[in-house]
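Protein Record: Sequence and Backbone Structure Tokens
======================================================
Tokens: labelled as protein backbone structure tokens, with as many entries as the chain has residues.
Question of interest: how does this chain fold, as expressed in backbone structure tokens?

___
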Amino acid sequence: MANLKKREIIILVIAALFVLYAVYAYLIAGPASKKVKTSADSVKIETFKSDLTNDLSKNNLSDFDKYVAIRTGVNSGNNPFLKKDIYRAWLEKDSKGNSILSKIIYSGYVDSGKNRMAVINGLEYRTGEQLAEEGYVLKQITPSKVLIYDKRAGSNVEIPIQE
């Protein structure tokens, strides 16, 4: 240390002071300044939660939102407790006369080489996609008709093009 110049000693002393201040700030002053605030935050959370539930109960889903929600549930798995034969019999008995298939309108056909698309109720579908109406899957597309599979009844239905 005797060989150090006065300038070097001053720089080392200033650096040591910075190190001491950093140790004080992180180890001593840091934990002491952190205090738990419980009462105000819990009230804010409760008001936020009640406001959120009120807003969600007021808003109804649009048709597009319902369509997106149904599409996200595709391939969600099979229910092992569902007896398909009993359910199909109940569905056929219940749905006589007021079929959703009467509301499905096949109005267009698009063939772009690799992709075939059908326009059904104003929406475009490829083979294998689930329709906006719950429980129906587009199975086959031809220029004159489409083949739709009804998951609930377990049957195929042909719908001709309507121009």
Q: What stands out?
A: The mean pLDDT is 80.
